[in-house]
Amino acid sequence: MKSDLVYIALLHYPVYNKHGEVVTTTITNFDLHDISRLARTYGLGGFYVVNPLRSQHLLARRIIDYWQEGYGASFNPTRIEAFRHTTVVSDLTEAIDQLRDRHEADPVIVMTGAKKRSGSIGYSELKGMMAAGGGPYLILFGTGWGIHASMAEEVDYILEPLMPHSDYNHLSVRSAASIIIDRLLGDRD
Ligand code: SAM
Q1: Of 171, 179, 184, which is best to mutate to test ligand 1, by the most ligand atoms within 8 angstroms of its C-beta?
Q2: Could you tell me if 9 and 142 are in contact, meaning their C-beta atoms sit under 8 angstroms apart?
């Protein structure tokens, strides 16, 4: 599997808040940095930050520009590289359209989450599917209290949760994304 056919999307809408309501969450500085670094390290095609709010786009752009062009770029040039393939979009459709244009194929969309859902696929199954070809693959991660259940109807696959039997299942999105990308693309030697 060519890792540059794999993309991450971080959804800030539609996600749950702690009361189970649908909300738009704010962009987190750490998420931008750590998931951009993850994507660059594993040679992914890109990282989409999905947020419908213009104010949040401005915030994300300010952070990214600081590390690409501002003082941050001279302070830590490796971040220029990390953010090169990070794109802020308003909704998933925008990301899907970009991938369709770039790869001349619809992306295979895979949703992640901490809750076990019926019909989900395992890591080796997805890895095998990726190895067999196809793609691009767009792997969705959530913010807040996780991706809204309605998204399950819109994706091609739902991935099994990590550690479904743990009595503590509250990984940060940064940890979950790193573990999942490593399970799918990591060098096992
Ligand atoms: N603000 C929170 C944070 O990062 O601490 C965001 C939490 S959000 C619910 C975490 C996201 O990481 C989930 O939507 C899912 O994409 C992923 N995630 C968390 N735990 C997971 C698990 N056990 N298995 C698979 N994905 C998981």
Answers
A1: 171
A2: no
